[in-house]
Specification:
heterodimer, A: alpha+beta, seven-stranded mixed beta sheet, six-stranded mixed beta sheet, 16 helices, about 30% helix, globular, B: mainly alpha, flat
Chain lengths: ~550, ~325
C-alpha cells in the first residue's frame, strides 16, 4: 500500500458530525457543482482508479427491476435521480431543476426538469425522457418500483422541460420516493435499443457511466465526459469489487487492494481507527433492527390477521403485556456494547433520530427494568418462564445477538430458544407466518413512511407480524396525506406511542454506516442513506 | 468397437438427462422461495407474484422442466436471477479461474512435497528431516481458511509483497497472474504438499535401499545422480498416482480458498448461487459438473476398452 505522507495523515479529519469526511489542511479545490452537498476538501489530483469493496453482489443494474441495497451504491455513481438528499437528509433537486410544486388539493405534482443535461449516450434529458422512465417503472412486468409508485395515476408532459404527475390521493412521501430508484431516469434511446437487457448495460445520467461487469467479481464504471458537472469529477474509474466476507474486506483495505470499504464490521472499527493509513466515515443509518413478533400472521402475509395455530401461538402473541415485559427485560445499550462494541445506537422506534421528521415523542423509550418485566408477567397471569422461539440468522453476529437477547430475557422471566435459520428460508417462513418471533431489520428509507407503512398498516405487504390496529392505520394514513412537516412529525410521535403499547416489533438498535477509506483518498461522502457517493472523490495530491 | 462406443454414448446421454431431472428437482426441494429471495427487502406479495410470472415460476413443474430442457437443447442455460447475466457466460468466466488455481496449487504442492520428501529421505534423522516432517504435519492439520488469513496478514499487510485478493488470467499477464495466485495456491496446495512429502519420503526410503541404487553407487555415480536419476525417478510413480487421486479434493478445497482470496471461481459461484436461490445458476453449475464427470468416465471407459479388449467384448455380450 502506498504510504501517505505524515503531513497528510495528520490533517485528515475524520467523519465530523458523522456525515462527511474532509481533509482540510489544504484549500479545497473541489466544488460540489450546484451547492447542494458539502464541499469535498483537500487537494485532490484528477485521475486514478478507485476500488470499492461491496459486501454483496448487486442484482440487475436496471433501476426498474433492481432490488438490492448494495445495487443502490453502484447506481449512485451511474444513475442520477429527480431528487436526492443532502448531508442533513433534506430533499434537494438532482435531475429536477427545483423541488416539486404540489397543487392545493395535493393531487398534482409539477416537476421542472434540469436543463442542459445529457445521458451517457448523448441523448438529451427532457420531460419526455422522464415520462418514459416513470411509465416503465410503473408498467414493466416484475417492476420493483410499481409498489412504490401506486399513488401515481399518470405522468404527463406539460412542456419540453416540465412533467406533471397526477396522484390518486395526496401522498407526501412521493418526493422522497423520487429520490430513490423510482426517480432514476434512463436514456430513452438505450431503453428502446436494449429493452429488457437494459440492466446488462445501463445508460443514465451520472458522474460515471457503466463500463463492464464480471459476475461475482467486479463492476467497472468510468468517468462520463457528458456529465453536466464532469469538471468536478476527479476519478477516471471506479471498480466495485464484491468481497462478501467482512474480515477479507477489511484485510483488502489494509493491504491497499481496495480504497473504500462499505459496511465495516463493528469488530474491525478499533483496528481501523488505530491504523494511521486509514479513515472511518460513520453516519447514522435510517433503518433499524429488532424482533418482529407474530401476533396475527396466521395464514400468510396476504391473508387477513387472525388467531395463530397452536404451533406458533404463545403468551407473547396473545398479550401486549407479555410483549411489553419482553421489551423491558432487554437492555439495548448493553446489547450494543456486548455485540457491536458500542458502534451502533439503541433504537426504540422505526424513525431514525437523523430524520427531519423525528421528534422527542418519536424517540421515547422503555428503560431496561427486568423486575418490572416480571411484575407485568404476573399481571398477565402467564406461566413463568414464558417459552418463546426466536428465529435468527446463521452468521456469527446473528448468533451473538441471539445469545445476548436470550440471556437478558431470562432475567425478565423468559426462556428463549434460538432457531438459527438460513436467510432465504427464514424470509419464507416469516411471510407464511410460521414463526413466533424473528430477529430482522430494515435498511431504512429517507421518508419515515418507508419504515412504517409497509410494516405496521393492517395487511401491508411487509407486515409479517400480522399487526392490526385501526388507530395506527389512521395515523399512518394521515401522515402520508399531509404535506406539512410539523403536522407529520406530530402524527409520527402519536403513532409511536400507539405502537409501543402493542409492540408488534420490538425495536432494538440502529446500525451505523461504517465506511472505511484509505488515507490517500478524500471527498468520499456517506449520508444517512448509506450510499457511498464518489462524484467528488479522488486521490489526495502527494508532494 | 463402434457398437461399444455407440452404447456408451447412449448410456451417457441417458445419465445426463437423469442428471437434469435430479438437478431440477433438487434445486426446487431447497427451502426458501427464489421469488421471495429475489424480491429482497421489498417483498410486496404483488411484486413476488410478478417475479414468479417473469421467470415462469408460476407454471406447473412439468412445464418449467420442459422449458428448461428446451432451452438446454439450444445450448441456453438461462440468465442468472441475481445479475441478469447469461449463466453460460458466467460459468465460462468462472471455470478457468478454478482450473488455473487447481493446476497452480498442484504444481506448488508437487514442488514443495517432492523437494521436502527427498530431503527427509536423504538426510535421515537430521534436523532437515525433523523440519520437513513438522511442516508436513502442520500442512495437514492447519485449516485452509486460517492459513489463508495468516498469509494475507503477513504477505499482503505486514510485508506488502503480494496482493490480498483478485485474479489475473495467466494468458493475460503471466507475471501478475503468478503474483495473484501464489498465496492462494500455497494455501490450497499446503495439504496436498504434505501428503506428497510423506509419500515421496517413504517411496524414496524404499528406493534408496533397493539393489539398483546400490549398483548405481558401486558404479561410482555421485550421490546427487543416484538420488535424482535413480531413486527419485522410481519414487515418482507413487507420487503421480497420489496427485491424480487428490485432484478432486483440490477442486472442492478451492471453494474456501476462493472465498478468502476473492477469486471469482467455480466454487464461489456455486455457493453464492445456492445462498441467493439463483435457480438457473445452480442448475447450470451442477449440470456442468455432472457433464464433466460423465465425460471423464466415458473417456476412461473407452481407454480401458482400448487397453483391454475383454471389456468391450464383455460389454457387448450383455
Amino acid at each position: 500500500m502506498p504510504s501517505v505522507s505524515f503531513m497528510l495523515r495528520t490533517v485528515a479529519v475524520l467523519a465530523v458530525s458523522g456525515t462527511l469526511i474532509s481533509t482540510t489542511a489544504c484549500g479545497p479545490i473541489g466544488s460540489d457543482g450546484d451547492g447542494d452537498g458539502p464541499a469535498p476538501g483537500g487537494t485532490i489530483r484528477p485521475g486514478g482508479e478507485l476500488r470499492v469493496a461491496l459486501a454483496e453482489e448487486p442484482d440487475l443494474l436496471d433501476p426498474t427491476l433492481a432490488r438490492t441495497l448494495v445495487g443502490r451504491i453502484v447506481f449512485v455513481s451511474i444513475c442520477e435521480k429527480l431528487y436526492d438528499v443532502d448531508a442533513e437528509l433534506n430533499l434537494v433537486p438532482q435531475l429536477a431543476a427545483e423541488l416539486p410544486e404540489i397543487s392545493e388539493d395535493g393531487l398534482t405534482m409539477t416537476i421542472p426538469v434540469r436543463e442542459g443535461v445529457t445521458f451517457a449516450d448523448g441523448t438529451p434529458l427532457d420531460a419526455e425522457a422522464v415520462k418514459v422512465s416513470l411509465d416503465r417503472h410503473q408498467e414493466l412486468e416484475g417492476s420493483a418500483r410499481a409498489a412504490e409508485l401506486t399513488s401515481v395515476d399518470s405522468v404527463e408532459v406539460v412542456d419540453e422541460m416540465t412533467v406533471a404527475i397526477s396522484l390518486n390521493a395526496p401522498f407526501a412521501p412521493l418526493t422522497a420516493v423520487l429520490a430513490d430508484r423510482s426517480g432514476m431516469i434512463m436514456s430513452p434511446t438505450a431503453l428502446a435499443e436494449k429493452g429488457e437487457d437494459f440492466g446488462t448495460d445501463p445508460v443514465c445520467v451520472g458522474p460515471f457511466r457503466f463500463s463492464d461487469r464480471v459476475a461475482q467479481d467486479r463492476i467497472e464504471v468510468v468517468k462520463d465526459p457528458n456529465y453536466y458537472d464532469a469538471e468536478n469529477v476527479y476519478l477516471d474509474q471506479v471498480t466495485y469489487r464484491i468481497i462478501a466476507d467482512a474480515t477479507t474486506r477489511f484485510n483488502n483495505l489494509r493491504s491497499g487492494d481496495v480504497e473504500v470499504l462499505e459496511r465495516t464490521a463493528p469488530t474491525d472499527v478499533a483496528a481501523l481507527e488505530s491504523d494511521p493509513d486509514l479513515q472511518l466515515i460513520s453516519s447514522e443509518s435510517l433503518g433499524y433492527q429488532g424482533i418482529t413478533i407474530n401476533i396475527g400472521n396466521a395464514d400468510g402475509i396476504t391473508q387477513p390477521p387472525g388467531p395463530l395455530p397452536d404451533e406458533f401461538a404463545s403468551p407473547l402473541s396473545e398479550s401486549p403485556l407479555v410483549r411489553q415485559a419482553l421489551e423491558l427485560s432487554l437492555d439495548r445499550e448493553a446489547i450494543n456494547q456486548a455485540v457491536f462494541l458500542g458502534q451502533f445506537a439503541p433504537a426504540c422506534g422505526p424513525i431514525s433520530p437523523a430524520s427531519p421528521l423525528s421528534s422527542d415523542a418519536a424517540q421515547t423509550c422503555a428503560e431496561h427494568d427486568p423486575a418490572a418485566a416480571q411484575d407485568l408477567l404476573a399481571q398477565a397471569g402467564v406461566e413463568v418462564p414464558v417459552r418463546i422461539e426466536l428465529m435468527i440468522g446463521t452468521d456469527a453476529q446473528a448468533r451473538r445477538l441471539g445469545e445476548a437477547i436470550q440471556a437478558q430475557a431470562a432475567e425478565g422471566g423468559f426462556e428463549i430458544e434460538l432457531n438459527p435459520t438460513e436467510f432465504s428460508a427464514a424470509l419464507d417462513q416469516a411471510d407464511q407466518g410460521r414463526f413466533q418471533s424473528f430477529q430482522i431489520g430494515w435498511s431504512g428509507r429517507v421518508d419515515p413512511d418507508g419504515n412504517i407503512a409497509s410494516f405496521l398498516t393492517t395487511q401491508a405487504p411487509l407486515n409479517t407480524a400480522g399487526y392490526r390496529n385501526p388507530e395506527a392505520d389512521q395515523l399512518i394514513e394521515a401522515a402520508r396525506a399531509s404535506s406539512d412537516l410539523a403536522e407529520r412529525r406530530d402524527l409520527y410521535g402519536q403513532l409511536h406511542a400507539v405502537v409501543r403499547e402493542d409492540n408488534p416489533i420490538i425495536y432494538l438498535y440502529r446500525q451505523k454506516n461504517l465506511t472505511g477509506v484509505a488515507g490517500t483518498v478524500a471527498g468520499v461522502e456517506v449520508y444517512g442513506d448509506g450510499l457511498v457517493r464518489l462524484a467528488h472523490a479522488g486521490f489526495v495530491e502527494t508532494e | 468397437m463402434g457398437r461399444y462406443l455407440l452404447r456408451r454414448l447412449v448410456e451417457s446421454a441417458v445419465t445426463l438427462v437423469l442428471a437434469t431431472v435430479v438437478v431440477f428437482a433438487g434445486v426446487r426441494a431447497l427451502p426458501g422461495d427464489p421469488a421471495r429471495t429475489l424480491a429482497g427487502e421489498e417483498a410486496d406479495p404483488v411484486a413476488i407474484a410478478a417475479i414468479r410470472r417473469r421467470y415462469g415460476f408460476d407454471q406447473p413443474l412439468p412445464v418449467q422442466y420442459y422449458r428448461y430442457l428446451e432451452n438446454l437443447a439450444q445450448g441456453e442455460m438461462g440468465r442468472s436471477l441475481r445479475t441478469g447475466l447469461p449463466v453460460t457466460d458466467t460459468i465460462r468466466d468462472a471455470l478457468p479461474v478454478t482450473v488455473q488455481l487447481a493446476v497452480f496449487s498442484m504444481v506448488v504442492a508437487v514442488l514443495i512435497g517432492v523437494g521436502a520428501g527427498v530431503i527427509a529421505a536423504v538426510r535421515r534423522r537430521s534436523a532437515a528431516e525433523w523440519g520437513a516432517n513438522t511442516i508436513a504435519l502442520l500442512g495437514l492439520s492447519i485449516p485452509n481458511f486460517w492459513l489463508g488469513l495468516m498469509a494475507i496478514l503477513v504477505f499482503a499487510i505486514a510485508f506488502p509483497v503480494l496482493p490480498a485478493s483478485g485474479f489475473v488470467s495467466v494468458f493475460e499477464n503471466p507475471v501478475e497472474s503468478f503474483r495473484h495466485l501464489l498465496m492462494p495456491a500455497l494455501v490450497l496446495g499446503s495439504g496436498l504438499a504434505a501428503v506428497v512429502m510423506r509419500q515421496t519420503r517413504s517411496a524414496m526410503l524404499e528406493s534408496l535401499s533397493a539393489d539398483y541404487v546400490r549398483t548405481a553407487r558401486a558404479k561410482g555415480l555421485s550421490n546427487a545422480q543416484v538420488v535424482l536419476s535413480h531413486a527419485l525417478r522410481n519414487s515418482l510413480i507413487v507420487v503421480i498416482t497420489i496427485v491424480g487421486l487428490q485432484l478432486g479434493a483440490l477442486i472442492s478445497g478451492a471453494v474456501v480458498t476462493e472465498q478468502i482470496f476473492v477469486l471469482p471461481g467455480f466454487g464461489k459461484l456455486t455457493i453464492d448461487a445456492v445462498f441467493t436461490r439463483d435457480y438457473p445458476m445452480i442448475q447450470g453449475v451442477v449440470l456442468v459438473t455432472a457433464a464433466a464427470y460423465i465425460a471423464i468416465n466415458l473417456l476412461v471407459d473407452l481407454l480401458y476398452s482400448v487397453i483391454d479388449p475383454r471389456i468391450r467384448v464383455g460389454g457387448a455380450a450383455l
